[in-house]
Design goal:
Helix content is about 65%, strand content about 0%. The chain has about 450 residues and is mainly α. The relative contact order is 0.10.
């Protein structure tokens, strides 16, 4: 362990001193302009993502999608925003009014703040000033993003609690459990990135991927992060806090007008946040794809990296949309089971493997034969962890097949059981006329 931590700790210190030296020297108006540009870009990106999601899902379902407001329906999102602003703002009588009003703000503000440490590009000439295309950076920038993103969950939890509605409260509780479960897996997936980059600074992690992206050499971490980021943002098939099938609308059932619009805005900005973080940590950040970089020497200079960065971010957002249009919502027990019994154990085993390989490589390398044997053993462990639970779930339907078909009926209390009520309600015996009559006769006979 000492052999592992000492070289990495030294690397972190040296890397941070070099990469962070370019931050903190901007004049005040450059800082204000960059902060304003981040705000405007996120709002416009949200309007575009809403329109894009509707068009893509419509194409998947063989529909037309928005096509009335503006060319190709591009102004549909703006029209929806105006509609929400003009709607009546209703506050339930049973609600805690102060918390009810603050909850959407608590959910929205952290969504904007997290982009302060995301690198959009290299150092450029910005109206005569040399400045990096990044608002700021810090030695623990990735941990800062995760901490601020966690604060946004409190807005959802408090919004559900303060509404005074049972359904909203259940949605808020689901969101808190979802955050705890999948943020653990997300954090574990990032440990391998920190070990290879030797830093938690976002700009330094991007620089460490100049030759090879971490998404390729740390593929298990990349897959775990992609799954966890869908659960973290409450998107389908993990949109259980707002499951309209059983919770009406979830945590925002009682919200309307601009308060609902803030929750909606926070969800789409959080999608952009986790997509930008995935781009930064696993896909080389603002660096151009390898084949472009080899052909065009200036692909990573000037403002061109903005094109590569937002192209990668939109790729992840398309994955979000694709999942929503393809997969059904999971049951809550399936969702929690997958997070705690699949993602977290696999992430822990992978961290041990990466740490061991990293420590051995820093000490002078490892024999190729032993490396291949180790990779084979890890692959076997992953397969066992993945398929053992699947075999257990396949055995459940066989046991359930012996139960008579029909809706499950809970047993009546032992003291006041009614004859005929505890009998399984099968599809063959159900009749809208005879079944209630039989139940009434049974109850009358008991009385």
């Amino acid at each position: 362990m000492t052999a592992l931590l000492s070289p990495i700790g030294a690397g972190i210190g040296m890397a941070d001193e070099e990469s962070l030296a370019q931050f903190g020297h901007d004049v005040w108006w450059v800082v204000l302009v960059k902060a304003l540009l981040i705000f405007v870009v996120l709002v416009l990106l949200t309007l575009f993502n809403i329109w894009w999601e509707r068009r893509v899902v419509a194409r998947m379902q063989h529909r037309i999608g928005p096509n009335v407001h503006g060319p190709f329906g591009l102004l549909q999102s703006l029209a929806d925003g105006v509609k929400l602003a003009l709607k009546e703002d209703i506050t339930p009588k049973a609600a805690d009014k102060l918390v009810f009003i603050l909850a959407p703000v608590i959910a929205t503000v952290p969504a904007f703040v997290t982009f302060a440490v995301i690198p959009f590009g290299p150092t450029v000439n910005f109206f005569g000033e040399e400045t990096p295309l990044q608002l700021t950076d810090m030695p623990v920038a990735v941990l800062f993003v995760m901490a601020i993103a966690s604060i946004g969950i409190y807005g959802i939890v408090l919004g559900g609690w303060s509404s005074g509605s049972t359904y909203s409260l259940l949605g808020g509780l689901r969101s808190s459990a979802q955050m705890i479960s999948y943020e653990v897996a997300m954090g574990l997936a990032l440990v391998a990135v920190f070990l290879y980059a030797g830093s938690m600074s976002t700009s330094e992690i991007v620089e460490a991927q100049t030759d090879l992206w971490f998404g390729l050499i740390l593929a298990p971490s990349f897959v775990i992060y992609c799954i966890a980021m869908v659960g973290e943002t409450n998107r389908a098939p993990f949109d259980l806090p707002e499951a309209e099938g059983e919770l009406v609308g979830g945590f925002h059932t009682e919200y309307s007008s601009l308060k609902f619009a803030l929750f909606f805005l926070a969800e789409y900005i959080n999608m952009a946040t986790v997509s930008a973080l995935a781009t930064t940590l696993f896909l080389g950040g603002w660096h151009a794809p390898f084949w472009i970089d080899e052909v065009w020497a200036g692909a990573n200079e000037g403002y061109w990296p903005l094109l590569w960065f937002f192209g990668k971010v939109l790729f992840f957002i398309f994955i979000f949309i694709w999942l929503r249009g393809s997969l059904p919502r999971l049951r809550y027990d399936q969702f929690m089971h997958f997070g705690w019994k699949r993602l977290i154990p696999i992430a822990l085993v992978w961290i041990v493997a990466v740490s061991t390989i990293r420590a051995i490589s820093l000490d002078g390398g490892i024999d190729r034969q032993y490396l291949l044997i180790g990779i084979g053993v890890l692959a076997a462990i992953f397969l066992v962890l993945f398929f053992v639970g699947a075999s257990e779930q396949e055995a459940e339907p066989e046991a359930a097949a012996e139960v008579p078909r029909g809706f499950p009926v809970p047993p009546m209390p032992a003291g006041g059981a009614v004859r005929g009520a505890a009998r399984p309600l099968t599809f063959e015996s159900r009749s809208p006329v005879t079944e209630p009559a039989a139940a009434t006769r049974s109850a009358g006979e008991e009385i």
